[in-house]
Amino acid sequence: MVNRSDVHYFGAGPAPLPTAVLERASQVLLNYKDKGIGLCEISHRSPDANEILADAKNALTNLLDIPDDYEILFLQSGGSGEFSATVYNLVSIWVEKKRAKIAEEVGDDKAEVVRRLRKVVDEELKLDYLVTGSWSLKASQEAARLVGAQHVNVALDARKANSGKFGVIPPEAQWNLTPQTSGGGPALVYFCDNETVDGVEFPAFPQSLEGDDAPLVCADMSSNFISRKVDVRKYAVIFGGAQKNIGNTGIAIVIVRKSLLPPHSTPASPDLLRELNLSVGPIVLDYPTIAKNNSLYNTLPIFDVWVAGQVMAGLVNTYGAKRIGGQEEISDGKARMIYETLDKYPNVYRVVPDKAVRSRMNICFRVHGGDAEKEKDFLAGAEKKGLLGLKGHRSVGGIRASNYNAVTLEGAKTLVAHLEEYAQSS
């Protein structure tokens, strides 16, 4: 039998979890707080469940220094569900603001309001997408499916600057963002902070999205959540599936600016959206509804929230005043060690993305130029050393070492030793 201590898992997600958290989880699954029932059996509306939610929120707030004017939501949508949720929620807010402005001009003439509003939607509604990899591409495609391709502005398609493949982020001067005019600008600007499949990570927040007239920025941080410092104030919405750095598969976490929730913002009515031929989202993706009900509008998987809370609390206890900066130092150190080894043997290894945008979380490379048999040999040798989950995504192939928080320094060093040994024997 293979023991857990014999294995270092580099899978891209679901990803490894801290062993101490899994050991505690095995206990609470059977008997939570000596109540005689397991955590998966307690009511999601019980005081215990509310305590678990509060603890998870507090830990995340502490780690990322989230300001008071942001709300934390837990949903069952996964990151892909949030592709839809951000569109539903922010388009609805954009539409209602336009409706209110028109109503001020024309008064109670509802037909005239709708007529003018329809023209404004047809001519002005835009959602900007920075497409730098497979997940941001899917997000832009979902937006086009929901509101129509004519309303989706792919402000950046990184493939155009890299011979049809992802792996670079062109300079911001080359992006084609919707202008911020006195009348508004885009309903949102979306980007994926770290592309799991393609190994591309934004090195910093884009300067062109900052400033007093900044648009509403939505970032998918599914695969680099709680791995580095984040200036939350620069974002309208941050979201991510939990199954990379935070917990097990089953929940998505959303950090949303409170000014986008009632009473500060009002979404357009479903009837109005239908009149405008715009999608009406399911209520389980409606941020105001989820926020009003403390993420408990429907039955939230409390066990999944408990796991996420335990992982985040562990980081709080480990790094103290450093907060997420402590984890950032570890993550950066592991990634640097692996990349330096890959770069040391250019005749054997080729890192796929451009050096300026290499992901700290998902290290994608080819062996001997992508020779299928040699990559198979590399993976077989790694498996013998207990290095698992290194096969690249099925859409791009190659090798991918996912350097998530629960990958230990020992695991990274073991991978480096295999890289060295394989290169020297090739």
TrEMBL record:
GO molecular function: O-phospho-L-serine:2-oxoglutarate aminotransferase activity; pyridoxal phosphate binding
Domain of life: Eukaryota
UniProt record, GO biological process: L-serine biosynthetic process
Pfam families linked: Aminotran_5 (PF00266)
Catalytic activity: O-phospho-L-serine + 2-oxoglutarate = 3-phosphooxypyruvate + L-glutamate; 4-(phosphooxy)-L-threonine + 2-oxoglutarate = (R)-3-hydroxy-2-oxo-4-phosphooxybutanoate + L-glutamate
CC annotations in GO: cytoplasm
Keywords of this entry: Amino-acid biosynthesis, Aminotransferase, Pyridoxal phosphate, Serine biosynthesis, Transferase
Cofactors named for this entry: pyridoxal 5'-phosphate
Domain Aminotransferase class V: 9-101, 157-413
Transferase listed as a keyword: yes
EC number(s) on file: 2.6.1.52
Pathway(s) per entry: Amino-acid biosynthesis; L-serine biosynthesis; L-serine from 3-phospho-D-glycerate: step 2/3
Protein family according to the UniProt entry: Belongs to the class-V pyridoxal-phosphate-dependent aminotransferase family. SerC subfamily.
Protein name (Swiss-Prot/TrEMBL): phosphoserine transaminase
Organism of derivation: Polyplosphaeria fusca
High-level lineage: Eukaryota, Fungi, Dikarya, Ascomycota, Pezizomycotina
